[in-house]
């Protein structure tokens, strides 16, 4: 089986967060004690993915490279791809075609945070699907802001509706997509919507029309945070802080995940901890060594 590759879509202009994103990429903003991009990165790591492409704007790429490097500090291999103009989520598969080289992929949006005790298990289940695609449905109070799943009475998926005025359900499609190796080919056939974007919903509808799309519902035990507004950005930081201080455990730590999975050894983790020696994150990493 071809090893699944990861895509972190961290492009876009971030205009909804102006003025704080006028000089800094949204995905580099802090979510409590870590940069935002650490959280989607950690999701792909929890899925067992070690080869990833980070898609950024040309002007922000150097900042991401300075932050993440080549990924070797976590046992990863990172590739950087520039997104000249933000033209919709489906564009990511066109830009990443050469990187994927026919491999299946897991794409996560750079401003999405996922949390839940069973997260590695549901990611593993999605990864096991070698053909077609899997997306995750999450119940929200304001489905009109998202792509929404329309379920038939028997629970099967009829369609996915982008930002509906009248939502067919309260289950939004999260920013995490497990698709097979045909995704770039399918994305190339997507036509721009009235918004002038290559909609991810249209791409998913192609899979659905072929009977190759499954929607896995995330239940009450999971949290999905979309940090696209000032309020949700603050909420995400408070959420991470509350859980971290209450439980004494980190959320979205690539260092911890890499060590637990055996991708880096104790000496490498200790070296990382020394970089953060003056704060609680560094102390936390040292505690992992016993």
Notes on the structure:
There is one protein chain. The protein is α/β, with parallel strands linked by helices and 290 residues long. The protein has one domain: Spore Coat Polysaccharide Biosynthesis Protein SpsA, Chain A, CATH 3.90.550.10. 32% of the residues lie in helices and 24% in strands. The protein has helices at residues 38-46, 61-68, 91-95, 97-100, 119-127, 183-187, 200-209, 230-247, 254-260, 266-275, 280-288; strands spanning 5-9, 30-31, 34-35, 51-56, 77-82, 105-109, 112-116, 133-139, 147-151, 157-162, 171-179, 213-218, 222-226. The strands form four sheets. The chain has a seven-stranded mixed sheet with strand order 5-4-1-6-11-8-12. Strands 2-3 form a two-stranded antiparallel sheet. A hairpin with a 2-residue loop joins strand 2 and strand 3 (34-35). It is globular and about 50 Å long. 42% of the residues are buried. The mean pLDDT is 93.
Gist of the model:
The chain is globular, with a radius of gyration of 18 Å. It is an alpha/beta fold and 290 residues long. It is built from 11 helices and 13 strands.
- Strand segment tally: 13
Please report the distance between the alpha carbons of the first and last residues. 37 Å
CATH class: Alpha Beta
Order of helices and strands: EEEHEHEHHEEHEEEEHHEEHHHH
Strand content: 15-25%
Q: How many domains comprise the coordinates?
A: 1
Counting copies of identical and different chains, the oligomeric state is: single chain
Number of helices: 11
Low-confidence stretches: none
From the coordinates shown, what is the CATH architecture? Alpha-Beta Complex
What is the arithmetic mean of pLDDT? Answer: 93
Instruction: Summarize the main sheet.
Output: 7 strands, mixed
């Amino acid at each position: 089986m071809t090893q699944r590759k990861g895509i972190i879509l961290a492009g876009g202009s971030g205009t909804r967060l102006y003025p704080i994103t006028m000089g800094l990429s949204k995905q580099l903003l802090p979510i409590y004690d870590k940069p935002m991009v650490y959280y989607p990165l950690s999701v792909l790591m929890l899925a067992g993915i070690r080869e990833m492409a980070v898609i950024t704007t040309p002007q922000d790429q150097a900042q991401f490279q300075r932050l993440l490097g080549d990924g070797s500090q976590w046992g990863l291999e990172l590739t950087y791809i520039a997104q000249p103009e933000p033209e919709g989520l489906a564009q990511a598969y066109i830009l990443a075609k050469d990187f994927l080289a026919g491999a299946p992929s897991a794409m996560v949006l750079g401003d999405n945070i996922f949390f839940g005790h069973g997260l590695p298990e549901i990611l593993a289940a999605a990864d096991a699907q070698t053909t077609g695609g899997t997306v995750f449905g999450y119940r929200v109070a304001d489905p009109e802001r998202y792509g929404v799943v329309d379920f038939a009475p028997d629970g099967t998926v009829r369609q996915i509706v982008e930002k509906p005025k009248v939502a067919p359900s309260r289950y939004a499609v999260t920013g995490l997509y497990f698709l097979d190796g045909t995704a770039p080919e399918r994305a190339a056939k997507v036509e721009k919507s009235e918004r002038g974007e290559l909609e991810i919903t249209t791409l998913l509808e192609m899979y659905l029309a072929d009977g190759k799309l499954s929607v896995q519902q995330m239940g009450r035990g999971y949290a999905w945070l979309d940090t696209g507004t000032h309020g949700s950005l603050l909420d995400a930081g408070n959420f991470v802080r509350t859980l971290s201080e209450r439980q004494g455990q980190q959320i979205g730590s690539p260092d911890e995940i890499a060590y637990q999975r055996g991708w880096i050894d104790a000496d490498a983790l200790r070296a990382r901890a020394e970089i953060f020696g003056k704060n609680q994150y560094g102390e936390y990493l040292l505690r992992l060594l016993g």
